[in-house]
Amino acid sequence: RGSVKDFPGFDASQDAEALYNAMKGFGSDKEAILDLITSRSNKQRVEICQAYKSQYGKDLIADLKYELTGKFERLIVSLMRPPAYSDAKEIKDAIAGIGTDEKCLIEILASRTNQEIHDLVAAYKDAYERDLEADIVGDTSGHFKKMLIVLLQGSREEDDVVSEDLVEQDAKDLLEAGELKWGTDEAQFIFILGRRSKQHLRLVFDEYLKISGKPIERSIRGELSGDFEKLMLAVVKCVRSTAEYFAERLYKAMKGLGTRDNTLIRIMVSRSEIDMLDIREVFRTKYEKSLYNMIKEDTSGEYKKALLKLCGGDDE
């Protein structure tokens, strides 16, 4: 359900040459760079990087960074990295320096599949020669940290065989760990929301509503707080619908004054080959305007053109 597909009749060395020519001499042909890179799949872009290296002995990403600037540069460079390395770079930036970008950590770790998490951990190790878990432990605290570490294991159950007894038990355990208890048993929330399969959890949420009379989200808001609460709500949203979670993140990144460009870039790049069509559909239904139009009104220049190519179409 992605908006970006493999380019037919792809030729890596031809593309490498086209990019080389677009950057040769004084000033670069940004339009040519944009058109080429946004119409190739990630796998193809990686091959172009390799071809560029062997044809010109230069690093394509480094050349693009040198030629381009600002948000457009960030977007194009993100597209050139394999997804796991892109995630690794985002997380590295989120925990580097003073202060932490918790929203970025939440978004990536709450939404990725087991396999994507394993690939991310390996890419982080490869790119930075550091252990991701250790870095996150050093940078976060409390229950927020504990839940991130559980998600980092990438060990969510994946079978779709659901036991009714266990669904009832989990719903009851969550109710007893929160609403029915003085104080909250956070460990129970972490265990159930961090480990169970999505299929199972959807039924647990239905059962929870039935026995407590309120949606699990409302209980989480009442029982938990701070970044831990935000993380748990993100996990619940991704369990219910990843596409809806991202539609909401995109909307929030653009509504009001100023645009959260890093969020916008990260989501448009990471979802362009996975579920962009689903995200667009949910966005259109939920906000009564198309994602395409919102991007168009909210951004400008080559940056805008590239984002619109990744969006892939207008649903108005």
UniProtKB/TrEMBL annotation:
Keywords: Annexin, Calcium, Calcium/phospholipid-binding, Cell projection, Cilium, Cytoplasm, Nucleus, Phospholipase A2 inhibitor, Repeat. The keyword Calcium applies. It is found in: Basolateral cell membrane; Cell projection, Cilium; Cytoplasm; Melanosome. Its main location: membrane. GO terms for biological process: animal organ development; apoptotic signaling pathway; cell differentiation; mitochondrial calcium ion homeostasis; negative regulation of sequestering of calcium ion; tissue development. It holds the Pfam family Annexin. Transmembrane segments: none annotated. GO terms for cellular component: basolateral plasma membrane; calcium channel complex; cilium; melanosome; mitochondrion; nucleus; vesicle membrane. Belongs to the annexin family. A pair of annexin repeats may form one binding site for calcium and phospholipid. This is Annexin. It comes from Apaloderma vittatum (Bar-tailed trogon).
